[in-house]
Write a structure and sequence with these properties.
Elements (H helix, E strand, L loop, with lengths): L3 H10 L4 H5 L7 H15 L9 H19 L1 H10 L12 H9 L5 H11 L3 H13 L4 H7 L8 H13 L7 H4 L3 H60 L1 H49 L1
Helix pairs in contact: 1-4, 3-4, 4-5, 4-6, 8-9, 8-10, 12-13
């Protein structure tokens, strides 16, 4: 038995109350708990934070997975409800949190995140998160930027209006850290945000280029395959037209023609030789008669 996990929960999320953390009722069904876990895990996913904050985000994500396992398990949930403690013994934290998320939900895509952001920004859930971050960080805007999903320097005027409404309604105290933030602190945050935004844009550009190159390679491969098919089809057509079907006849005609030409050449040569022989013999007889005379 351990209360360490709940203490870690309070350090990372500002509460030990699991139902408050997941924003659900104590009588929530298994499906409602699962939906709440998915919604909250999207907000705390390590892929959604700058590189410098990934370690903290990973810890938050791991703890969130363990806390979900408490509410998702009937016996662990009953123990928590009755005694306010959790049983996290036997957990292989090196991979359990990743496997549990992967088994429960499909792989996270940019479209999933964009769709969630559209439904989240301006919602009552965002207002609750802003209020919680404002109280936990005692008005520190840096802390709010790190803990409120999708919040950036560009959102500060909108968030400031929401906080002022909460102050006017008496829901939160007026912290000087928020209302009288030093200009130097604000400038440092904005410069950091600008650097991170530039880096994110560069990473996205490179990823888009790699995706475009990969798509081009696939297109070339398809075209090469189509060209190969066209070439093979052309060869097959030529073979059908000039190939083995008439090839034997053509070869036979060539052999006959060659043989005929050879016989003709031999006959002509023999005729020439005979004529020369006759001429030579005639010349010999003439010489003999002259000598006798």
């Amino acid at each position: 038995m351990s209360k360490g996990l709940l203490n870690t929960c309070e350090e990372l999320y500002g509460t030990k109350d699991l139902y408050e953390l997941f924003s659900i009722d104590k009588k929530a069904s298994e499906q409602e708990i699962k939906k709440a876990y998915y919604r909250l895990s999207l907000k705390t996913h390590p892929d959604r934070v700058p590189e410098d904050d990934k370690q903290t985000a990973t810890e938050r994500f791991k703890v969130l997975s363990k806390l979900y396992s408490v509410l998702a398990d009937k016996d662990k949930r009953a123990l928590y409800d009755e005694r306010g403690i959790v049983d996290d013994e036997g957990e292989n934290e090196a991979d359990t949190w990743k496997l549990r998320w992967q088994n429960l939900f499909k792989p996270l895509t940019d479209e999933d995140i964009d769709n969630f952001m559209k439904s989240y920004v301006g919602s009552e859930l965002e207002r609750t998160d802003i209020k919680k971050a404002y109280l936990n960080g005692r008005g520190c805007i840096n802390y709010m930027n790190q803990t409120v999903p999708f919040m950036s320097c560009e959102d500060e005027p909108r968030v400031a209006k929401i906080v002022q409404e909460l102050i006017d309604a008496g829901e939160v105290p007026a912290y000087d850290a928020f209302l009288k933030e030093p200009k130097a602190k604000r400038d440092r945050r904005h410069k950091k945000y600008a650097r991170e935004a530039k880096l994110a844009s560069e990473v996205k550009r490179q990823r888009d280029e790699e995706s475009e190159l990969s798509s081009l390679r696939k297109q070339l491969a398809v075209r090469n395959q189509e060209r190969k098919g066209t070439f093979e089809s052309m060869i097959a057509s030529l073979e059908a037209r000039y190939g083995s079907a008439n090839g034997d006849d053509d070869e036979e005609e060539f052999v006959l023609a060659s043989s005929k030409k050879s016989r003709s050449s031999s006959a002509k040569k023999a005729k020439t030789t005979t004529a020369k022989t006759a001429t030579a013999a005639k010349g010999t007889r003439k010489s003999t008669r002259t000598a006798k005379s």
